[in-house]
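Good morning C.,

I know you're traveling, so I'll keep this short. The sequence:
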Amino acid sequence: MKALKLALFSCAIIFAIACSAQPKPDGAIPAAQPAGAASAVPLGSYQCWANGSARMLLNFTVTSAGHYHAADGTDGTFTYNPSTTAIVFTGYEGKVMPPGFTSIYHVPQGRPTVSFRGTGGAEVSFCQLKM
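The tokens, ready to paste straight into the viewer:
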């Protein structure tokens, strides 16, 4: 009985997530897909969040292809691999997460996002392009 309840709960969660995607005007549901090479990571300010709170010390601004300005006032670089969605930072953003953490770049529901992931793959923080 417990397994059945767990299975039903899992199905309900999957259904809720699928239903929450907002269709585009043409009816297509936006995909959480990478946007291309490092030059495709949009320029602009990225605001960061974790556990429902702003994480202003993680904020950064993409200033040009493969370059960013960090909240601590320093500049750094990044590379983006569209086939794996991995984004790797040097400088401040590359040092703020513990060893073994990774980052991915994706565009869920049309919003450019960098997601910092723990060693198990779960998202621990994310930064979205300020729109």
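Safe travels,
E.
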